[in-house]
Amino acid sequence: MTCSEMLGEAGDVRDCYAAVQQWVDETGIEGLHRRLSEAEAIFRRIGITFAVYGEGGDPERLIPFDLLPRIFTAAEWARLEAGIRQRAAALNAFLLDVYNRGEIIRAGIVPGDIVYQNKAYKPEMAGFTPPGKVYSHIVGIDIVRTGLDDFMVLEDNCRTPSGVSYMLENREIMTRMFPELFARHRVAPVDDYPSQLLRSLQEVGPPACKDVPRVVVLTPGSFNSAYYEHSYLADLMGVELVEPADLFVEDGLVFMKTTRGPRRVDVIYRRIDDDFIDPLAFRADSLLGVPGLFNAYRGGGVTLCSAPGAGIADDKAVYVYVPEMIRFYLGESAILQNVPTWQCSKPDDFAHVMAHLPELVVKEVHGSGGYGMLIGPKATSSEIEAYAARIRANPSEFIAQPTLDLSAAPTLGPVGLVQRHVDFRPFCLVGKEIRLVPGGLTRVALAEGSLVVNSSQGGGVKDTWVLR
Amino acid sequence: MLSRTAENLFWMARYMERAEATARLLTMGQRMTILPGATMRDEWRSVVQVTECEDVFGKDAIIREADIVEHLILNADNPASIRACLARARQNGKSVRTALTQEMWEALNEGWRKLETYGVNDARREFAEIIDWVKTRAMIFRGATESGQLRNEGHDFLRVGGALERAQMTLRLLDVKYYVLLPETEVVGGHRDHYQWTSVLHALSGSRAYHHVYGGSYTPAQITDFLMLNRQFPRSTLYCFDQMAYRLQRLASWHGQRTPANLRSEEMVETLAQANSGDIFRRGLHETVQNKIVQCNALGHEIAQAYHFG
């Protein structure tokens, strides 16, 4: 049975949701709908949109917002927080290891070929240690809940996880529109995320920087789907938002072009993929890159956040080994469990997956955004057939997991509250220390029964509360 | 400040100003077409000339109101259209979100897709509402800038762009309409010229202001004085030149360095401040206006060069 976020095992409203339930009763469904359209008007006016390519229609779409908050108790959060921090530390330790001595591979814990043969592994990074030994400065960990006490990590995002602007804006809108709701609760604030992010980035200044590092946010430009978030974060940190054409490299240092002439840049929070940051080091056909940027980085003239090649740690083939990484590097056992995963590259797992396709979720190892997945229980037999052929053709490109019964949270439907499946993405910051604001982004699958929460596929967002 | 940011602010202000100017011109055009003795073709032609997009309409074609509505309000591909100006201003703003206040952004973003939904017939029916809406957008934007933006160099880039665009619009209007202001046409033109002048003043929101300064009568010398040399009327050429020189001076002190743009803008102010409408007519109104337009263009280039625009 689906775990309900709001109802306890006996079907009663859990304490943490009691005041929200009361607020819903007082406001009424019609009242909530009215407030929802007000909220949407605010979102639209301030321009919190995301772009969807190739589908026509509105080029700048609003992400659907649900008024009902998703709530964690203090005790739940304490456990999540410990698990998230632990995972962020282990993933960074893994990156340092695989780009240097590779001890976890020599110890036979992680097979070498899934690391070194992986497209996400950047040989250019081998033997180089980034400032503070940090590779992934913002770790987004996607967590699902399958029971009141059962949390599992669905995947890790070590490159440039997006969505934190929704965490901040959702809260902003909720407090602006429903101050009375916050008066009834003690909700932990999240609004110092930008200053914590800035502090984390300033802590990883490059060797060439002797002063307080000058941080910039590097965006591909205003046509990028996450541009709003890039500008929003730059704004809240009070740093420049630069495009590649604003930067150039000279004598191993990076400069931005200003009205006063060139100005040094020390730390770049880049929201551009590895392949596109520097046409000299990676893809030569990249029009987005800054020529010479990677050399400046390796020479200690600038810090890139995240480090090129950090994606090897969030690869789905590597994911399976994260609990063992935690044991290997930290000597601890994992607080948050992985979802059981079959690797189609292994003959036994392959046989199991092929025999159980109608029950499983199968994912491409390098896929993201909820695309290219097979959700067995929702697929037709011909869809399963076609997918099976793809797996057979290239088993190592696929992993499979049981179809998880994600927890469901109360969500505003047309005529009343409905239960919709949710997941959760907290944003863990890594500088000299590890920081985590109490909250994150809750995504909700708005279609009845749907398990896909991605915004590109009909998912929406909710404010996430951590009670104190 | 990033050069790209400065450039975007400069152009954002120009496009907002241009959208508003086009809206004002359209009001003028419509007024003129309903004046006694007007031929539709002439009146809309002058509007098209001021917006510098005669090639969109063709040199000889008869320009009807529907064409004007289509190309100067709705056509996204004509850079002079209101829709294109608003979209570009918004795009400039979007690229420099961090240099705008929330209210400025909202002013740019609110209703930016409104004009997409109009067909030519709808837009003709709601002509006056659309024009008012555009002017209101521009005013809200200016208000948001005035009351919220940090008075840093970004503000000066924005203001110098706005002043430059506004000066050019007044100059182009004078350039297209100069013949009605020539003293010798007084005899020929009679009443109809009177209406033309009032329409020009009206387009620049200057008819009340004109009367406050010069009393009840219209004379070519006074109208020229008002639109070229008056230092209090915010759409006069000299007022805009003053603003440009002032903003460029502030930019020079922010950057600790004067540029050729400072020299030129100060010289532009000086020359105009020393002139009177008599001098201007003696030298030729058309030549004077042309000369100022050339100088404005040159100034635009010098600003771009001095601050490393892309």
Task: Write up this protein.
The complex is a heterodimer of chains A (about 475) and B (about 300). Chain A is an alpha+beta fold and about 475 residues long. Chain A folds into three domains: about 15-205 and about 300-335 and about 405-465, no CATH class; about 205-300, Rossmann fold, CATH 3.40.50; about 340-400, Dna Ligase, domain 1 (2-Layer Sandwich). Helices cover about 30% and strands about 25% of the residues of chain A. In chain A, strands 3-23-22-19-18 form a five-stranded mixed sheet. In chain A, strands 13-5-4-20-21 form a five-stranded mixed sheet. Chain A has a four-stranded parallel sheet with strand order 7-6-11-12. In chain A, strand 4 (about 140-145) and strand 5 (about 150-155) form a beta hairpin. In chain A, helix 2 crosses helix 12. Residues about 50-55 of chain A have low confidence and may be disordered. Chain B has about 300 residues and is mostly helical. Chain B folds into two domains: about 1-150, no CATH class; about 150-310, no CATH class. In chain B, about 75% of the residues lie in helices and about 0% in strands. Chain B has helices at about 5-35, 40-50, 55, 65-75, 80-95, 100-110, 120-125, 125-150, 155-180, 185-190, 190-205, 205-215, 220-230, 235-255, 260-275, 275-285, 285-305. In chain B, helix 1 packs antiparallel against helix 2 (about 40-50) and helix 1 (about 5-35) runs antiparallel to helix 4 (about 65-75). Chain B is globular and about 55 Å long. Chain B starts with a helix and ends with a helix. The relative contact order of chain B is 0.12. The model of chain B is unreliable at about 185-190 (pLDDT under 50).
Give the SSE layout.
The complex is a heterodimer of chains A (468) and B (310).
Chain A: H1 15-46, E1 49-50, E2 61-62, E3 65-72, H2 74-98, H3 103-106, H4 112-116, E4 138-147, E5 150-157, H5 164-177, H6 179-183, H7 193-202, E6 215-218, H8 227-237, E7 240-242, E8 247-250, E9 253-258, E10 261-265, E11 267-270, H9 274-277, H10 293-298, E12 303-305, H11 316-319, H12 322-330, E13 337-338, E14 342-343, H13 347-355, E15 360-364, E16 374-375, H14 381-393, E17 398-402, E18 408-412, E19 417-425, E20 427-430, E21 434-436, E22 441-445, E23 459-466
Helix pairs in contact in A: 2-12
Chain B: H1 3-33, H2 40-50, H3 54-57, H4 65-74, H5 82-95, H6 102-109, H7 120-125, H8 127-148, H9 153-181, H10 185-189, H11 191-203, H12 207-214, H13 220-229, H14 237-255, H15 260-274, H16 277-283, H17 285-306
Helix pairs in contact in B: 1-2, 1-4, 1-5, 1-8, 1-9, 1-11, 2-9, 6-8, 9-11, 9-13, 9-14, 9-17, 14-15, 15-17
